[in-house]
Amino acid sequence: GAGVSQTPSNKVTEKGKYVELRCDPISGHTALYWYRQSLGQGPEFLIYFQGTGAADDSGLPNDRFFAVRPEGSVSTLKIQRTERGDSAVYLCASSKDPTGKLFFGEGSRLTVL
Amino acid sequence: DQQVKQNSPSLSVQEGRISILNCDYTNSMFDYFLWYKKYPAEGPTFLISISSIKDKNEDGRFTVFLNKSAKHLSLHIVPSQPGDSAVYFCAATSHNAGNMLTFGGGTRLMVKP
Question: Which of A56, A83, A90, A112 has the fewest CB within 10 Å, making it most exposed?
Answer without folding.
Answer: A83
